[in-house]
Specification:
It is a single chain. The strands form 2 sheets. Strands 4-3-5 form a 3-stranded mixed beta sheet. It has a two-stranded antiparallel sheet with strand order 1-2. 3% of the residues are buried. α2 packs antiparallel against α4 (135-145). By secondary structure, the chain is of the alpha+beta class. The model has no long low-confidence stretch (mean pLDDT 85). The longest helix is centred in the middle third of the chain and has 27 residues, at 42-68. Among the domains are: 2-38, no CATH class; 70-132, no CATH class. The chain has helices spanning 19-39, 42-68, 86-103, 135-145, 148-157; strands at residues 2-5, 8-12, 70-82, 109-115, 121-132.
């Protein structure tokens, strides 16, 4: 089967495909996998772990900057819960209301749960609004790439 456009061959497919090609591809993949396993050694693993330990201070600073670039504006949850027994519904919602009293002390959190004693259902909605400062993580990433232990770690990880 061929697809041509203005006498230019775009795509060609033979039916049925030859099994020899498939067998050769599988054998090539096996050879690549065995070669990869033979290249991996305990010495390389120890070197990588050592480089991670050396670069951990810089990586942790980068992660801290990334996490601090997120600012939570609003987290609002409303749950409607109904179980088979009204007693189970009431006890479960009592636990949720107890947890809600802790979460609702923060002004950006709003947690609400209401029962449905007539039927079984779990329903709800979630509103999550947050701001992201993109300049800080980008600057931190560039700063991270200027550190020698991080560069050595990245060059070492290229092997894998």
């Amino acid at each position: 089967m061929e697809i041509k456009w203005f006498k230019i061959r775009l795509w060609t497919k033979k039916f049925p495909e030859e099994d020899k090609d498939k067998i050769e591809k599988i054998e090539e993949e096996d050879v690549k996998y065995k070669k990869l396993l033979s290249e991996f050694s305990w010495k390389d693993f120890k070197k990588t772990v050592n480089l991670v330990i050396q670069a951990r201070v810089f990586i942790l600073k980068f992660l801290k900057i990334v996490v601090n670039s997120f600012n939570l504006e609003l987290f609002k949850v409303h749950i409607i819960l109904g179980l088979t027994s009204p007693a189970d519904t009431a006890s479960t919602l009592g636990c949720m209301w107890g947890a809600a009293s802790i979460f609702n002390t923060h002004p950006k959190f709003h947690f609400n749960a209401s029962p449905d004693f007539r039927r079984e259902r779990i329903d709800g909605n979630l509103v999550l609004m947050f701001n992201i400062q993109l300049l800080k993580p980008i600057a931190a990433f560039i700063w991270l790439l200027t550190k020698k232990p991080v560069l050595l770690l990245l060059w070492n990880l290229r092997k894998y």
